[in-house]
Design a protein that fits this description.
Helices cover 18% and strands 26% of the residues. It has 170 residues and is of the alpha+beta class. The chain has a 6-stranded antiparallel beta sheet. Strands 2-1-9 form a 3-stranded antiparallel beta sheet, with no helix packed on it.
Length: 170
């Protein structure tokens, strides 16, 4: 391989790698442009350990362990860290995966990036306000989007439609 071919190969590789953000560095701001910035230490004091590990260390909870899998009431699923509304219950469905799944999110609620942790590329998504890791999106969901937003239950809280949504965490 000559120098020109090497440079073309490296250029192509950099186009693939550079757009990836480092873990925990997702672009995060809500629809008003307000980004919530807290250190990992601050988040660790505010959240239960399993939620902290999923949201800010990109861990995954065990399949079938979330009570939100069985949640069928009308309401809103919010980020467990900053309380930003992420999903409406009307877009939740039973995917059979063992994690709460949705076919679409609320407008402006999530940001995505490519994840290579399992060698092959996957699309992970995060809360757009605090950057908390929620899960991965796959192209095997129901119509109309064909998407499956496969969410860690500990990264969410459910608020019934009859209840007031909490104030966004400051």
């Amino acid at each position: 391989m000559d120098r020109r071919q090497s440079l073309k190969w490296l250029g192509g590789l950099s186009a693939f790698v550079l757009p990836m953000a480092a873990p925990g560095q997702a672009s995060a701001s809500d629809s008003t442009g307000n980004r919530l910035q807290k250190s990992k230490a601050e988040w660790a004091t505010l959240l239960p350990l399993p939620a902290y590990r999923v949201l800010f260390e990109e861990d995954t909870e065990r399949a079938g362990s979330s009570p939100l899998n069985q949640e069928k009431r009308d309401g809103t699923f919010i980020c467990a860290a900053c309380y930003l509304p992420l999903f409406d219950s009307a877009k939740k469905y039973e995917s059979g995966t063992g994690w709460p799944s949705f076919w679409d999110y609320l407008p402006g609620a999530v940001a995505t990036r490519t994840d290579f942790k399992l060698i092959y590329p996957r699309t992970e998504y995060h809360c757009v306000r605090c950057g908390g890791h929620q899960g991965h999106v796959f192209n095997d969901g129901p119509k109309p989007t064909g998407k499956r937003y496969c969410n860690n239950g500990v990264a969410l809280q459910f608020v019934a439609r009859s209840e007031k949504l909490p104030e966004l965490r400051a």
